[in-house]
Design brief:
Layout lengths: L1 E6 L2 E6 L4 H11 L3 H7 L7 E4 L3 E11 L6 E11 L2 E5 L4 H12 L13 H33 L8 H31 L10 H63 L14 H22 L4
Parallel strand pairs: 2-6
Antiparallel strand pairs: 1-2, 3-4, 4-5, 5-6
Length: 303
């Protein structure tokens, strides 16, 4: 279904779940390139911007946190950007849908943050709103890495393994989205993508600065979680080594005692076996061996 907001001669069309009829509407009324129409019915793996004589076709990826799994997933937004129209296609980021619904109810701008009626301004507001939502997600990730950092040296830090693994997966997912789009937004700021309105350089520069700031934060979080992961692995290795050391010491002490007790449990003639004090003699030998080994380990600083 094609939903439309009119701003005089400018129109914003929004198609949530494009059907064959919706794609035929785009093909018949706007004469877009067939490959762009085809992209609207599939998930494109990489962000991109295709430039034509009278329009641009953008495929943008923005992160969204899955509340059930706490994993970042990719939301794709496809945009046809022309001089007197803007078309958002597909199951886009919820910010696009919310902004469209809000603008449809309040078409007249009440302040400088509301949408004015030209394609460049509408596109800027869409990008800026998605940037703000993404920035909140990145800040929440910063709070999570701070929690991991605080809990790392907790005596009961085993539960952090899953949290660190999940955080690293989210960082990788964010890197996959952000890295190619950084070059895309550079095209706006550099003037390679000119758009259709004058004096938009500062606005595109603001988008790039916002995006660059989030990219820097993600890189910092990635380096931090790598360091915390290495520290956690070292702590777990040291803990395992300590356990193995203590078990080895216990085994070394018990081994000769087990040998002596097993030897005197045999039904053969042995020294002191016929003595009425045999039990105490064997116990004394075991105690002497025990004391000797403990003193030896202490002097070697193994205990």
């Amino acid at each position: 279904m094609v939903d439309t907001i009119n701003f005089g001669t400018f129109k914003w069309h929004h198609i949530t779940n494009p059907t064959v009829e919706d794609l035929d509407f785009l093909r018949d009324n706007f004469h877009f390139h067939p490959l762009d129409i085809e992209d609207c019915s599939s998930f494109v793996q990489r962000p991109k911007i295709d430039e034509y004589d009278d329009y641009y076709f953008l495929v943008l990826h923005f992160p969204l946190m899955d509340k059930r799994t706490q994993l970042v997933k990719t939301e794709e937004t496809k945009i046809f950007w022309g001089q007197d129209y803007l078309i958002t296609v597909g199951n886009s980021h919820y910010v696009v849908q919310d902004l469209f619904n809000y603008t449809k109810i309040n078409p007249e701008p009440e302040d400088e943050d509301d949408i004015s009626g030209n394609s460049d301004a509408v596109l800027y507001h869409i990008l800026y709103r998605m940037m703000k939502e993404t920035f909140l997600l990145v800040e929440r990730m910063g709070t999570e890495i701070d929690y991991i950092n605080r809990e790392l040296f907790n005596s009961k830090s085993e539960h952090l393994i899953e949290q660190i693994s999940r955080f690293r997966k989210n960082i990788i997912q964010m890197n996959t989205m952000f890295r190619p789009q950084l070059r895309l937004f550079n095209k706006f700021e550099s003037g390679e993508i000119k758009g259709f309105a004058d004096d938009m350089e500062d606005y595109w520069g603001n988008i790039l600065d916002f995006y660059q700031k989030m990219w820097d934060m993600i890189e910092d979080y990635g380096e931090l979680v790598d360091g915390l992961s290495s520290t956690f692995d070292s702590m777990q290795t040291n803990k395992t080594n300590e356990i193995m050391r203590m078990l080895t010491i216990i085994s070394t002490i018990v081994l000769p005692l087990t040998f002596i007790s097993g030897l005197y449990g045999m039904n053969v003639a042995l020294p002191f076996a016929s003595s009425p004090f045999a039990f105490w003699i064997v116990m004394g030998i075991c105690v002497l061996i025990l004391v000797f080994l403990v003193v030896f380990f202490i002097k070697k600083h193994w205990l």
